[in-house]
């Protein structure tokens, strides 16, 4: 009966298998390493390298999560990370948007060459710039403080400037003209017309910039001390027992806690972010 | 000059200048971009120049009293330093292993997600997730996954061969590093490819379908050529990123406790920037290290230039709107 209604059912089945088969294989491959972190975070330490391998822990050890919070002083370092990441993200989005607005909407001799310089700085290996910066920060007494991130934020990010410039270029110029006739200056046009109409672009850029600091390991290692450093540095080797043996299961609980807010956030914001990237126009 | 400004002769030139539309527009532009200009001068240009100067000295990062010029010594040393050559070789090996495979994975994921699919936001999140996972967490993920006894990889291999007891990070560190890099980078490239795919007008594909082209033919002869600008973009980004990999091999160094900062990665994962980092921050050779990094900078610029030159032969810029 069903065959009579859908005579091409077998062909459709093949098409579906072709469409979803590789997708499921890829999704499994991408998720397995993460799945294993979650599984391990719920094991007893004795189950960690049991043979045969424990796939489903018989009694999930939620206590690992409590230990992960306690042993690493998780809240304090999470707070450091949040302060540092949001400071940088807010500053860099504001300055980069302003600069992007300048490049998109204001003509001046040398503009296109300067924009080429913005893009060229993307090519400079970050460590080449960082080493002398490190020497300067040390001489100025700025190591062990959050000032370097403030300065980096105030200087804008070439990547974000590029995104905002592309994004603002698609705004109708009539808006500027109308506002100018009404007597608005460039800063007013920027803050009253451009910023309020850039929700997705601002959100996407801010998320990326926040994430960059949240995840960065190198700069806090080199610039900050054991007390004011970020969660990223802390997570690298926070979990050992009093004899110095690694506590792998607690470590994995810590990793889950470190990543989970980002996962939740991205699951919620991903459509937004993809739209932000599409509308900012990286189309090659 | 004019009667109105005659009362205030000294203010005249400035205000007259300001009244000229072109000058005012230029001043506005430069004021708007002034944060970037200051940032560029103080955080990029001056540091780069200092690094260049440093590369001709014996600077140790601490004491300015003993600094002296050593001419081209640091550069001649870079070309005879066996560690630097080894590191460069390993970097090229990793680049060749990671960049083409990474591009294929990113493109394949984007093509799969560009079909009408149920739960596509879920799949997109799954592939994008590793890209937003911080590097320290990613290093833990792969350290655990490839752990000889507690890891899933050996357990899965154990289903095929009875005694799978491979110490991945010791025996095949570059394989783990490559998998980590491809896994972590896939989502970023995929999103850019998706944006590119969505920019291809559906009519092109439909027209080809009506003319009897199969799905594979449409991909090969319509989609891929129109996507070459995006492929090129991701290729350039991928190569520049691969040349600069530093933190991942350091963190994956098989230390006893935690991830391995301060531990030197195994010889196979001893990459060029790792060598630069260790030269500077461990051996305190700021002068020599700066020379190494400046050479890398020149290589990156040269490679980008060559890529742009060759792009004329294969990148299709036919349909600029």
CA-based gyration radius of chain B: 27 Å
CATH superfamily of the largest domain in chain A: MetI-like
- Provide the CATH top-level class of the largest domain in chain B: Mainly Alpha
Tell me the major beta sheet of chain B.
none
What oligomeric state is this? heterodimer
- What composes the largest sheet of chain A? none
Largest interface by Cβ-Cβ < 8 Å: A-B, 94 and 96 residues
What is the number of strand segments of chain A? Answer: 0
- Architecture of the largest domain in chain B in CATH? Orthogonal Bundle
Tell me, what's the shape of chain B?
A: flat
H-E order of chain B: HHHHHHHHHHHHHHH
- CATH topology descriptor of the largest domain in chain A: MetI-like fold
Q: Please tell me the total number of domains of chain B.
A: 2
Strand portion of chain A: under 5%
Shape of chain A: globular
Q: What name does the CATH topology of the largest domain in chain B carry? A: MetI-like fold
Put simply, the count of helices of chain A is 14
End-to-end gap of chain B: 49 Å
Name the descriptors.
heterodimer; A: 284 residues; mainly alpha; MetI-like fold; 14 helices; 0% strand; disordered N terminus; B: 321 residues; 2 domains; 15 helices; flat
């Amino acid at each position: 009966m069903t065959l009579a209604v859908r005579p091409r059912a077998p062909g459709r089945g093949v098409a579906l298998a072709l469409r979803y088969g590789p997708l499921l294989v890829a999704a499994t491959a991408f998720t397995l390493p993460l799945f294993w972190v979650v599984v391990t975070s719920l094991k007893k330490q004795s189950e960690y390298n049991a043979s045969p391998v424990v796939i489903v822990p018989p009694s999930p050890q939620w206590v690992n999560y409590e230990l992960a919070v306690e042993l690493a002083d998780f809240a304090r370092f999470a707070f450091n990370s949040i302060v540092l990441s949001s400071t940088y993200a807010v500053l860099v989005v504001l300055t980069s948007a302003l600069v992007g607005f300048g490049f998109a909407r204001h003509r001046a001799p040398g503009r296109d060459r300067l924009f080429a310089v913005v893009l060229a700085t993307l090519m400079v290996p970050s460590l080449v710039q960082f080493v002398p910066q490190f020497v300067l920060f040390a001489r100025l007494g700025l190591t062990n403080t959050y000032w370097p991130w403030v300065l980096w934020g105030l200087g804008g990010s070439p990547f974000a400037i590029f995104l905002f410039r592309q994004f603002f270029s698609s705004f109708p110029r009539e808006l500027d003209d109308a506002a100018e006739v009404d007597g608005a200056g460039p800063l007013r046009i920027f803050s009253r017309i451009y910023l309020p109409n850039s929700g997705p672009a601002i959100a996407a850029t801010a998320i990326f910039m926040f994430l960059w600091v949240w995840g960065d390991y190198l700069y806090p290692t080199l610039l900050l001390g054991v007390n004011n450093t970020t969660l990223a540095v802390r997570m690298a080797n926070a979990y050992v027992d009093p004899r110095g043996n690694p506590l792998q299961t607690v470590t994995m609980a810590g990793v889950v806690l470190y990543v989970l807010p980002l996962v939740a956030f991205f699951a919620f914001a991903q459509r937004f972010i993809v739209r932000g990237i599409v509308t900012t126009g990286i189309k090659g | 000059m004019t009667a109105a400004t005659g009362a205030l002769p000294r203010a005249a030139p400035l205000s007259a200048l300001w009244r000229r539309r072109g000058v005012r527009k230029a001043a506005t532009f430069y004021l708007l971009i002034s944060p970037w200009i200051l940032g560029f001068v103080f955080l990029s240009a001056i540091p780069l120049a200092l690094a260049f100067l440093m590369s001709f000295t014996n600077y140790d990062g601490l004491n300015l009293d003993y600094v002296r010029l050593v001419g081209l010594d640091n550069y001649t040393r870079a070309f005879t330093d066996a560690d630097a050559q080894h590191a460069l070789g390993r970097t090229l090996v990793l680049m060749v292993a990671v960049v083409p495979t990474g591009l294929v994975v990113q493109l394949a994921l984007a093509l799969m997600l560009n079909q009408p699919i149920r739960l596509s936001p879920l799949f997109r999140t799954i592939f994008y997730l590793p890209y937003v996972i911080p590097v320290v967490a990613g290093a833990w993920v792969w350290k655990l996954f490839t752990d000889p006894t507690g890891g899933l990889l050996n357990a899965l291999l154990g289903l095929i061969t009875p005694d799978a007891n491979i110490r991945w990070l010791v025996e095949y560190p570059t394989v783990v590093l490559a998998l980590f890099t491809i896994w972590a980078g896939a989502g970023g490239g995929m999103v850019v490819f998706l944006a590119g795919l969505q920019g291809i007008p559906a009519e092109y594909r439909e027209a080809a379908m009506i003319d009897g082209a199969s799905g594979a033919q449409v991909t090969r002869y319509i989609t891929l050529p129109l996507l070459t600008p995006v492929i090129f973009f991701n290729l350039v980004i991928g190569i520049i990123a691969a040349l600069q990999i530093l933190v991942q091999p350091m963190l994956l160094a098989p230390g006893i406790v935690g991830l391995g900062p301060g531990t030197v990665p195994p010889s196979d994962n001893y990459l060029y920037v790792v060598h630069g980092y260790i030269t500077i921050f461990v051996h305190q050779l700021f002068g020599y290290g700066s020379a190494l990094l400046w050479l890398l900078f020149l290589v990156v610029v040269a490679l980008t230039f060559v890529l742009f030159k060759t792009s004329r032969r294969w990148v299709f810029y036919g349909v600029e709107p």
